[in-house]
Specification:
By secondary structure, this protein is α/β, with parallel strands linked by helices. About 45% of the residues lie in helices and about 15% in strands. Strand 4, helix 6 and strand 5 form a beta-alpha-beta unit. It is globular and about 60 Å long.
Length: about 260
């Protein structure tokens, strides 16, 4: 059940005590509310809403305004959960000033507790500028969907020595720039586990094994209502799509 809202200090304490941090995406009031009731530690209003909610082919078309709308809904649904706004493509790429302005929108307009952005070495100045503005930043390295085309598609990263070194360099740069947590996506479990010993901030993963401080999962994947595709590492805990289709079919028959 929902308790007090956790803080960055709580997450560092959980890391030190070996307690796993639970993180899920949510894009609307109902899922946010139910996640809070279940006792989730963190919610990410991810730019994955582009695919899960709007049916886009990827995350690149997602706008700041779309993100803010969904962040507001999630905040209302989960007032006692640490909620993170995901900075969409183009919201921080044009310069430090734009990055800060858009990060401020997440906090001021939507009440977010932190923001997340993709990239490492190349976005270090953005992370520093946002952190210097007093906003909690979560870095995202490894497979970064917004730049997936440059990475050769949605492919795991860190599988070669050169790629692994790049992931490590990005992780170190993220921490040095002032990020308070690190999300690692689609890298070998051995690499993700080693990152936990390289950086001092909590390391969370998606498709990066279990030897880290916590996990984030897409709500549509684990609940079984997003059916366009399902990553191999996902465990489905429900098949909501099947339940919905059955219920609507029964309604149609009743009418």
């Amino acid at each position: 059940m929902a308790g007090k809202k956790l803080t960055i200090s709580d997450f560092y304490e959980m890391r030190d005590q070996g307690k796993k941090i639970t993180w899920i995406t949510a894009y609307d009031y109902p899922i946010a509310s139910l996640s809070q009731e279940a006792g989730i530690d963190m919610i990410l209003v991810g730019d994955s809403l582009g695919m899960v909610v709007y049916g886009y082919d990827g995350t690149v078309p997602v706008t700041m305004d779309e993100c803010i709308i969904h962040c507001k809904a999630v905040r209302r649904g989960a007032p006692n959960v640490f909620v993170v706004g995901d900075m969409p493509f183009g919201s921080y790429h044009t310069g430090d000033s734009d990055a800060v302005s858009n990060a401020v929108r997440f906090v001021k307009e939507a009440g977010m507790d932190a923001i997340k952005l993709e990239g490492g070495v190349k976005v270090a100045s953005r992370i520093r500028a946002i952190a210097d503005a007093g906003i909690v930043v979560i870095g995202h390295v490894g497979l970064t969907p917004q730049s997936s085309a440059a990475l050769g598609g949605f492919k795991a990263q860190g599988r070669t020595a050169e790629s692994a070194e790049a992931v490590i360099a990005d992780s170190i740069a993220v921490e040095k720039a002032g990020a308070k947590m690190l999300l690692v996506e689609a890298v070998p479990p051995e690499l993700a586990g080693s990152l936990r010993n390289i950086v001092s901030i909590p390391v969370l993963g998606i498709g990066a094994g279990a030897d880290i401080d916590g996990q984030v999962m897409i709500c549509g994947d684990i609940l079984g209502y997003f059916q366009a595709f399902t990553p191999k590492f996902v465990k489905k805990y429900a098949n909501v799509a099947q339940v919905i289709v059955k219920a609507i079919t029964e309604y149609i028959n009743d009418v």
